[in-house]
Structures are given as C-alpha cells and as structure tokens.
Design a protein that fits this description.
mainly beta; seven-stranded mixed sheet; four-stranded antiparallel sheet; 11 strands; globular
Length: about 120
C-alpha cells in the first residue's frame, strides 16, 4: 500500500519561503501524477500544483510564479518550493499521488503565514 508523509510546514512571515517535502513509500513505481493540494478551515480542498510522470507541471493561478513543484523519482519524493508567501496561503497542505488504479493522500502539514 502506498503511503505519503508530508513535512516542512511551519510558521513564516509574509514574503518568506518554505519547502514542503512528501515522502512516498510502498509500491509507487508508476504513477500518472503527484501533487499538492491545500485546505483551510471552512474551505474546500483545492489544487496547488501537480506534476506528471513525464514531468509536466500544472499550477493554480493563485500560486503561479511563486511556487515550484518537483519530483525526484529515485527517492520517491515530491517537493513544493513556496516563495513570496502570503497570509492567504495559510492552509493544511496535502500530498497526493495518482496511480493507474488508485489515489492516495498524505496526512497534511500545516502552513501558517503571518502578516
């Protein structure tokens, strides 16, 4: 069974940076896409960024130019570099993996951006 564990969240000031990491374990030799989603209290979970097995990336309009998603296949790791953080980026961030036959989620890591 695939397991995803996020890390790297924390409290930062507006304009600061954080790098989130997602460690994947289990059988994850092939996948369609991996990505990051976020969810704040009272809001729906929303897409932040995704990356396909071929390296194609997609970003939410709200984070384009500020966030960068990347994946190191040999380490089964996916990262989210977050720069120029804004208070509205405050959310729990979840790692996601879409395989050919299943979808998996991590437990989430809290990101809080103070103004």
């Amino acid at each position: 069974q695939v397991q995803l564990v996020e890390s790297g969240g924390g409290l930062v000031q507006a304009g600061g940076s954080l790098r989130l990491s997602c460690a994947a374990s289990g059988s994850i030799f092939s996948f369609n896409a991996m990505g990051w989603y976020r969810q704040a209290p009272g809001k729906q979970r929303e897409l932040v960024a995704t990356i396909t097995s071929g390296g194609r990336t997609n970003y939410a309009d709200s984070v384009k130019g500020r966030f960068t998603i990347s994946r190191v296949n040999a380490k089964n790791m996916v990262y989210l570099q977050m720069n120029s953080l804004k208070p509205e980026d405050t959310d729990v961030y979840y790692c996601n993996a879409v395989l050919s036959t299943s979808i998996h989620w991590g437990q989430g890591t809290q990101v809080t951006v103070s103004s």
